Amino acid sequence: MSEGRTGSTTGAREPGRAAERLTDGRPTDGRPTDGRRNQKLRTRRALVDAAVALVREGRPVTIADAAEGAQVSVATAYRYFSHPGELLQETQSVARGFEAVADLPADPAERLDLTVSRVADLQLGDEAVWRAVLRASLERWTEPSDDDSGDEADDLPTRNRLRLDITRTALEPLAETLPPDLHRRLTLAVTLVYGAEALITTRDVCALDRDEAKDVMRWAAGALLESALREAESGTRR
C-alpha cells in the first residue's frame, strides 16, 4: 500500500517538477523572473560596496566581514565570491564609476591621452581601493597550491585584463596604420605606464603628488605613441 501511495504521489507531483526544470527559474507563463535577477544583482553589489567600505576604513577584506556589511549570511556571500581576492577584483568595476573608453575622439593621440587621464583620475582619487586590489592579486602568488606539478603560476588567479582591453580600444584606430607587430608592442608598452602599478611607482617610488603623477603617465603614453609612429614612418624596427 505504501508503495502505491508513493507512486501515486510521485506521479501527481512529477508534472510540477518537470515544469520547474523546463522553466529554469521562470514562471509557468514563460516570463523571466526579473525580481530574482535584480535581487542577485543587489546582493552582489552590496557585497562589493561592503568590501570597498572595509578598504577605506583600513581593514582587511574577508568574506565574513563583507557579508556582515552587506547584511547577508556568510554562506550567501560565498555563493558569489569564493575568495577575498575575487571580491576585491570586482571592486574595480564599481570603483571605475564610468567607462574609460566611452565617447573617445577619433584622433589616436587624443584617444590615448583621454583614456590614460580618466583611469589616472579614477585611481588617484581612490588609492586605498586600488592598492588593496593590487595587494590581493600579489598575495595570491604566495598562497600554497594543491598542484605539485610545478606549474603553479599557470593556475593562479591573477590580475584581470581590463587595462589591456582598455588600451587596445584606445589604440584601435592605429590597427590599420601600424604594422601588426609594432601595434602590438605599442599596446603592451602603453599598458605598462598607467594603472595601479604606475600609481605605486609615481606615488611611492618617485614621491610625486597626484597631479604630477597623472602628468607623467600621460607624457609616457604619448611619448610611446610618438615613438611608434616615427618608427612606422621610417620603416625601422627595434
What does this molecule look like?
- Mean pLDDT is about 80; it is low at about 1-30 and about 150-155.
- The termini are far apart.
- The protein has helices spanning about 1-25, 35-55, 65-70, 75-80, 85-95, 110-125, 125-140, 150-155, 160-170, 180-190, 195-205, 210-235.
- The protein has about 240 residues and is an all-alpha fold.
Offer a few descriptive terms.
single chain, 238 residues, mainly alpha, disordered N terminus
Q: SS-based structural class?
A: mainly alpha
- The coarse overall form would be elongated
In N-to-C order, the SSE pattern is HHHHHHHHHHHH
Count of discrete alpha- or pi-helical segments spanning 4 or more residues: 12
Oligomerization category of the chains in this entry: single chain
- The counted number of beta strands is 0
Main sheet?
none
Strand residues, percent: under 5%
Radius of gyration: 25 Å
Low-confidence stretches: 1-32, 148-157
Average pLDDT rating: 78
Would you spell out the secondary-structure blueprint of this structure?
Blueprint: H1 2-23, H2 34-56, H3 63-70, H4 74-80, H5 84-96, H6 108-124, H7 127-139, H8 152-155, H9 162-170, H10 180-192, H11 196-205, H12 210-234
Helix pairs in contact: 2-3, 2-5, 3-4, 5-7, 6-12, 7-11, 9-10, 10-12, 11-12
